[in-house]
Amino acid sequence: MSLDFVTNQEIILAARRNLTQDIWDYLSGGAESETTMRRNRMAFDSLALRPRICVDVAKIDTSTTFLGQKLRIPVMMAPGSLQTITPEGGVAVAKAAADFGTMHFVSSVTQPSLEEIAASTQHPKIFQLYIRGGLDWCEEIIRRVKQAGYMALCLTVDTAHYSRRERQMMNRWLPPNKRTETSRHFQGMLTWEMMDAIKKMAGLPFILKGVATAEDAKIAMDHGVDVIYISNHGGRQLDHGRGTMDILPEIVDRVRGKADIILDGSILRGTDVLKALALGCKAVTIGKLQGWGLGAGGQAGLLRVLELLEEELIIDMALLGVTRVDQISASYVCKAPPVCSPNEMSAFPHLPGGQLR
After folding, report:
1. Segments making up each domain of the chain, as ranges
2. What architecture is domain 8-336?
3. pLDDT tens digits, 232-251
4. I need a labelling partner for 274 at 20 to 30 A (CA). Which of 46, 262, 297, 310 fits?
5. Could you list the active site residues?
6. What CA–CA distance (Å, rounded) separates 259 from 214?
7. What single string gives the DSSP state of each residue in 263-326?
8. CB-side exposure of 307: number of CA atoms within 13 Å?
9. CA quadruple 162, 164, 166, 169: dihedral positive or negative?
């Protein structure tokens, strides 16, 4: 059962009350000046919707498919170190995704084990891999992933070095996995050739997460990647990067429908989802909003986040003049000046001061 919140703004307030300052800063902040994180929001805020009228929108279908699996809404859960937010960690997300009818990415740094998360529901799951060893290490992890029944593999490629996340640094705090990890340097040794070897080992639908240029999207296509996942780690890695929605058009132009494209980075509203779909995404994933839902009420809090996004999507699609997500195209969006300065809370104007610290 989900909780009785009526807006995601209420969920964020509840998460702020529940989470310590350390965890809040880890979840809500970005790297260095947080410019990339703010540009993620600015990119959405710089687009306006172009609604069509006199369309029969009495029945709205928000569903789509991704890698052959039906999604109740085109929103999935991004991978993350969730045990810092809720004791159940990845199990809470697995259960919320199954209850709602979407999918989630299980991070290789999420607890409990990948086997325990897989066994917690029969719902399809995607495993996300951080490289923490050589090819022998990768082969062992992939063996476990396949044996546990994950339906796809996602390789993250934008974490060659852990970034300077200054909000948490000023607290002298690190996430638990970084305090004990000694093998992170292997991520910095990742090459296209190593990616090829990992992809071959997996023999599963293959998703590349962290693509940020058309040039790399083309190389990924040349290497047979099935899904291009546009991400800048929520603005938590390279500072002064572009917003993911600013990256999207050049990658859509380069991929030309030969692979699915998904995207994360400040997806906070139903209208954000529609804008991403209009410019060429198959679906999107949520990170911070997922974490806030977990912080507000664990599995039930996240389930309510998804329900509220669905409510927004139904209303937004009806007012836009579409009844199915496959009807949404670039003709429904246009450039427009943003109306406020972007930050991680600027999509929620009724929060105190428009920002929480």
Report:
1. 8-336
2. Alpha-Beta Barrel (3.20)
3. 998 888 999 999 999 999 99
4. 297
5. 233
6. 13
7. E-SS--SHHHHHHHHHTT-SEEEESHHHHHHHHHHHHHHHHHHHHHHHHHHHHHHHHHT-SBGG
8. 18
9. positive
